[in-house]
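Morning run. Coffee first, then this:
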Amino acid sequence: MKVLVIGGGAREHALCRSLSLDPDVTALHCAPGNAGIADVAELHQVDALDGAAVAGLARDLGADLVVVGPEAPLVAGVADAVRATGIPCFGPSREAARLEGSKAFAKDVMAAAGVPTARSYVCTTPEEIDEALDAFGAPYVVKDDGLAAGKGVVVTGDVEQARAHALSCERVVIEEYLDGPEVSLFAITDGTTVLPLTPAQDFKRAHDGDEGPNTGGMGAYSPLPWAEPKLVDEVMDTVLQPTVDELRRRGTPFSGLLYAGLALTGRGVRVIEFNARFGDPETQVVLARLRTPLARVLLNAANGTLDAEPPLTWRDEAAVTVVVAAEHYPAAPRTGDPVTGLDEVAELDAPHTYVLHAGTKRDGDHVVSAGGRVLSVTATGKDLAEARQRAYTAVGRIRLEGSHHRTDIAREAAGE
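And here it is:
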């Protein structure tokens, strides 16, 4: 099977790594990729938002499957353009991807499907914003209705900060604050059948102790030893299957990866948000534990034959990912700095520890930073404590001037 992955972040590196280990995959391509993905896939230059260009590349390569990784191409309809050529594509249509592309649309779908979520207001005027902020009180949760590259959500106790963010958005969703631990649960679906993956937890704040601004994610771990065994079944019954069924009922079936960000509140499970693709950095730890070969599952989802797929199987190992971020991330990350020590990580204890590239590029023979989240260091172990130890040992070998990372990823869950 020839597979083309679209994207160039750590999520796509994790996907490419898993696909490269799949015996069914005979050729692996990625566009545009990054410095790390180049080690496992052939890279091609393409505008990931140009559906015609992506479809043309897939046709020229003779791809049997295209996997669209990032949200922006999905919302732009790239998966539709690929499917129009007759090539199977893993990723929802433009209309179905509105589940991530518009917070207001997602709230409407959840209301129709009876999916539990936070109470909310959709606001377009200063008056509506003030009324919503007054209605809920602190802490304030303010979400840009559209895509904002992980920077569209502000959670704050400062009403002026909340109001300023709301006013900066063309349309905004203001909602009640949800207490309780957060969980990420992915599901692969063909629009009818839903196949859940294993839960993970990520860390959104930039600094230890959940301090600092929200980011795209500073680390993740799986499994969750504190989670109820029935959690996946409950989320399947109350969130994932009803959402897929509602989108199919509307004539816009969702085929691809459905991500549910969940809060386990005192009143039960509530949806914080939906994504229309694999989440980063949770993908890194979830795929590190997946035993089932990935390519066939994605192809069955793309072809509408997921009902023939048996339940996924998982390794008993735990996995931890720690993100190494550039100086001043997330506000104004510095780029162009050399990244060294990667060869030292490779010498540690592969395949238990490895680096997934996110914001990197090659500058001659050197790897340099090219984004805010530069690398994800992923490690597996017999338990979370061992995975943590391996991950942080590897992080200590990496040198990037001014970089920062959290030191408490999975610490509490590991009992440390």
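The chain has a mean pLDDT of 95. Good start to the day.
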